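Hi R.,

Here's the chain you asked about this morning:
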Amino acid sequence: MNTFRRRRLRPGKALPNNVTPPRHGERHGEWGAEQVNRPRNRGVYLLPNAFTTANLFCGFFAIVQAMNNRFEIAAIAIFFALVMDGMDGRVARMTNTQSAFGEQYDSLTDMVSFGVAPALVAYEWVLKDLGKWGWLAAFAYCAGAALRLARFNTNIGVVDKRFFQGLPSPAAASLIAGFVWLAVDNKLPVKELYIPWVMFALTIYAGITMVSNAMFYSGKALDVRYRAPFGVMILVIIGFVLVSSDPPVALFGLFVAYALSGYAFWVWQKISLLKGTKATKGKASDILSDS
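And the predicted structure, written out as tokens:
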């Protein structure tokens, strides 16, 4: 019969390093098998955080290029940051390597790549020509991105995972970067009066929409590990063709449609609610009239 060897600690003798003290309610002085304090695993998963670091690099690179007046390269770098941001989360879920460190690192990286970088790119491009209105618009966007990320972190596990509450910061950044890329690639008259004010309106809209309560489809319900209808594959092919034909126009149009989809969904919900209320009232009146 196997028995554990017990030992009694002498009064005043220090506990061994690999032994935990008795919990409240246990017999003091008697120990069973020695309990080893296993250090908490503080390792960092390399693969998903490598994509997050690439995201951070793209955001920082966009800032540097904007300071050097290379706005087209800066806008493209923000789109690369968007791709890296989408990869790190999916890789972490597919490889089961989620961690609290990764969540915080990703949030701080998003603030740089999708908060500070787009605001600085927009300001250095045309917003500085508007004086105080220009830097106020850039700050409004930057503050909206910070508030959006803070609310997202506190609402994890509370809101519906199929939708984002407010415009996601990567989509808002792509809206700003897409307009910059579109204007530079098509050689629009940037110095004309309407271009800075269009950028001003777009920046304010993106900043406000990020902190709004409008619901935007997240796409997290789509899982690449499972089967999808054949029509989805056709849509993916059409999307690749459209983007490759004229990337600035296609990407900017895509993110404009997405930035408006939240308000369109909100209007559709209100209309459906009104129809449902009217139908309920109609049934109630019919019942009262029959009685």
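The two ends are 82 Å apart (CA to CA).

Let me know if you need anything else.
M.
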